[in-house]
TrEMBL record:
<dbReference type="InterPro" id="IPR011904">
    <property type="entry name" value="Ac_CoA_lig"/>
</dbReference>
<dbReference type="Pfam" id="PF16177">
    <property type="entry name" value="ACAS_N"/>
</dbReference>
<dbReference type="GO" id="GO:0046872">
    <property type="term" value="F:metal ion binding"/>
</dbReference>
<comment type="similarity">
    <text>Belongs to the ATP-dependent AMP-binding enzyme family.</text>
</comment>
<feature type="binding site">
    <location>
        <position position="522"/>
    </location>
    <ligand>
        <name>ATP</name>
    </ligand>
</feature>
<feature type="domain" description="AMP-binding enzyme C-terminal">
    <location>
        <begin position="527"/>
        <end position="605"/>
    </location>
</feature>
<dbReference type="GO" id="GO:0019427">
    <property type="term" value="P:acetyl-CoA biosynthetic process from acetate"/>
</dbReference>
<protein>
    <recommendedName>
        <fullName>Acetyl-coenzyme A synthetase</fullName>
        <ecNumber>6.2.1.1</ecNumber>
    </recommendedName>
</protein>
<dbReference type="InterPro" id="IPR000873">
    <property type="entry name" value="AMP-dep_synth/lig_dom"/>
</dbReference>
<dbReference type="InterPro" id="IPR020845">
    <property type="entry name" value="AMP-binding_CS"/>
</dbReference>
<keyword id="KW-0436">Ligase</keyword>
<feature type="binding site">
    <location>
        <position position="496"/>
    </location>
    <ligand>
        <name>ATP</name>
    </ligand>
</feature>
<feature type="binding site">
    <location>
        <position position="307"/>
    </location>
    <ligand>
        <name>CoA</name>
    </ligand>
</feature>
<keyword id="KW-0460">Magnesium</keyword>
<feature type="binding site">
    <location>
        <position position="538"/>
    </location>
    <ligand>
        <name>Mg(2+)</name>
    </ligand>
</feature>
<dbReference type="InterPro" id="IPR032387">
    <property type="entry name" value="ACAS_N"/>
</dbReference>
<keyword id="KW-0067">ATP-binding</keyword>
Amino acid sequence: MSETLYPVPADIAAAAYIDDAKYQEMYKASITNPDGFWGEHGKRIDWIKPFTKVKNTSYDPHNVSIKWFEDGTLNVSANCIDRHLETRGDKPAIIWEGDDPSEHKVITYRELYAEVNKFANVLHAMGVKKGDRVTLYLPMIPEAAYAMLACARLGAIHSIVFGGFSPDSLAQRISGCDSKVIVTADEGLRGGRKVPLKANVDKALETLDVDKVVVVRRTGGDVSMTEGRDVWYHEEAERVSDHCEPVEVNAEDPLFILYTSGSTGQPKGVLHTSGGYLVYASMTHQYIFDCKDDDIYWCTADVGWVTGHSYIVYGPLANGATTLMFEGIPSYPSPSRFWDVVDKHKVSIFYTAPTAIRALMGAGVEHVEKTDRSSLRILGSVGEPINPEAWQWFYDHVGNKRCPIVDTWWQTETGGILITPLPGATALKPGSATRPFFGVQPALVDAEGQILEGATEGNLVILDSWPGQMRTVYGDHERFVQTYFSTYKGMYFSGDGCRRDEDGYYWITGRVDDVINVSGHRMGTAEVESALVAHPKVSEAAVVGYPHDLKGQGIYVYVTLMDGEEPSEDLAKELRGWVRQEIGPIASPDLIQFAPGLPKTRSGKIMRRILRKIAEDSFDNLGDTSTLADPAVVEDLIENRQNRA
Ligand code: WT7
């Protein structure tokens, strides 16, 4: 690990909201007096009825309960739009950059107001009211933001499903939260290729009953419309006014559900509520990106992931910032695209993922160097540990050694960033997420849950609540308690391993559970396994991650076949296609090894530790194999391993 220290540039510190002295002072206040600290910062958003209570949270596994600002009321869309109209009506709220470089659109706060109000009225006409769940399955077009904010305006709960998920995954997520209204588009457009969103919705709905499907026209491609169920957004929008009164909701009323993978079972519906979430998303966005009124801020995520929720839509818009929304991919039409967009729109803050950086690094530095990028001021990274080489390339070539990189650690569950540098306060070390944000108390524990002090390595837990924390698993509070608060009693367990160095800096080492991180996308190995064993030729499957140059982790699959089935290249291809169809392209296995048997204990438990080692091509030291039921299985697995150096 690189331990080179990059001190805060003096000009950045002088102009930033927070320098190191301020960080120390505010961090201390946030921990010693959370009520006082958050009571003050809670006022950064507009409340209809101001809160009088601040923090009311318990991590006691018998009674996990998380409430912030619990007697306050507000409307999230009014905070993201209405309150800016007087001073920022003509300021761009969203700059939309299409997949094709010839297409872009600027939406001012005043225009955003009209669009969101219309969208809310259309949804209202479809029967959507406070507390209802609405599933959004949309490409990266402004209507995705309009639809989110329209739900928030009505007090309805959106559940976004990433456009790369299959009809089956979509169906599971629609029925999981019992949505009666779906919003989609005819087709998406990414890298010049069409994504059949409406056709996928039709497939998902073959076995499900919903009231309405609202279809946004994006490509104009042919889609079938089911009479009485499906409506075109642009036709409905003509019938409604562009004013819709924002609905007053309680701070603890739900804002959205977002499904995410865990180490066991099917994806969980992570539930975030309104007041604390918005305070936390907006405050982290302002301070971590040091975002000022004249910045052009671009986060390259998709709104289908939490990063898009907190750092494309809610955080920036609550702050009255200009947020850029990009429909396309980094490599289309050329590997200069990101930097062309930076120059075109004079982007000053640029937030992306290590997997994109590694891919662009591979394409060659000439694609960066031919662009100007002098508008850039702050860079950011999220989604997985950033390897020091990628960090260095990002810093040297993209930021021309001028721009601090904020390596932000957080999770769908945390709602916002928890561990990160602040550009004006924190000296950087490539590969380290550095220090906790205000109000965040990280700790490292050993397997027994003993807190470890000083420079050490362990499992990353958070000792107390922060306002952006998820409140429950939708419809299954017991699963929430089990997943996050029962491994180490009285602590929130992140599922990540982590090292802390002599300076108190945190270095995330990756997941310690059965979750893998493929190109910054979270995947439960159990989900991929259950998709595989649903194939008629598959008897058993075990899935593990292995180091992958571009993706961070790749998906390594061990499969045993039903009696009479023979391994073949064709079958491997078939299984790849099967998983893509069951879950989506993001779950496509990278390597498939057919095995006559899997290593098991005498009680029948698959020994994943061994499978991980073999997949990593580091099987010299397999650890204790004395509990194996049949040691010969391992010989065959090593012999036929797929990932050879
Ligand atoms: C997992 C959460 C939070 C938005 C994107 C992913 C990994 C995330 C970092 C980082 C090292 C990171 C962790 C975490 N992760 N950011 N800066 N350094 N690891 O959200 O899908 O909920 O995944 O992503 O392993 O647990 P997510």
